[in-house]
Amino acid sequence: MTWLLCDYGEVLSLAPSPADRDALEVAAGVTGDAFWSEYWAHRPEYDRGTVTTDEYWSRVLGTRIPPTTIERLLECDATMWSRPNEASLAAVHRLAHDGHRLAILSNAPAPLADGLERLAWLAPFETRIFSGRLGLLKPESAIYHVTLAALGADPGDVIFVDDRAENIDAARALGLEAHVFTGPTTLEALARPT
Length: 194
Known about the structure:
Elements: E1 3-6, H1 18-28, H2 33-41, H3 43-48, H4 53-61, H5 67-80, H6 86-97, E2 101-106, H7 110-116, E3 127-130, H8 141-151, E4 158-162, H9 165-173, E5 177-180, H10 184-191
Parallel strand pairs: 1-2, 1-4, 2-3, 4-5
Helix pairs in contact: 1-5, 2-4, 6-10
């Protein structure tokens, strides 16, 4: 049995829409490139789970944030990453129909992961591994070892799809079949008969 292990953001989900980005900026009370630069600069430690949601947003905005604002930011952030990529999912479902078991490996903070777990369209993914619950990040080799153990799989039993080349390189170094996601056609090619 082969596992299809997918990254979540911008593979199974769509990239944040302009409307979703605008909503997060409104909740933050800050707009423009400087906001997004801080959003991404502090994201790795949030994804790793070494800073709390309060700490993350306080770092992004450079000031302590009231709890009601934190709740709104968390809600907007979750919404921004919750739009399904229907074309990717259609290809994934074809692979599942052909006998592949489905799993997710994503760099995502635990609070975001908690929200994603409730998305009905992720139900076919029987194993979901999120970095913020492990204290590890892709492309660190340890997260792939933890994932393989959770799947009960050898590297050769796993096809991994991710949109970041460094994550693909790390997976390949451990013996996984790995493909850089450039669009739903990456998954569609895996679903085609050979």
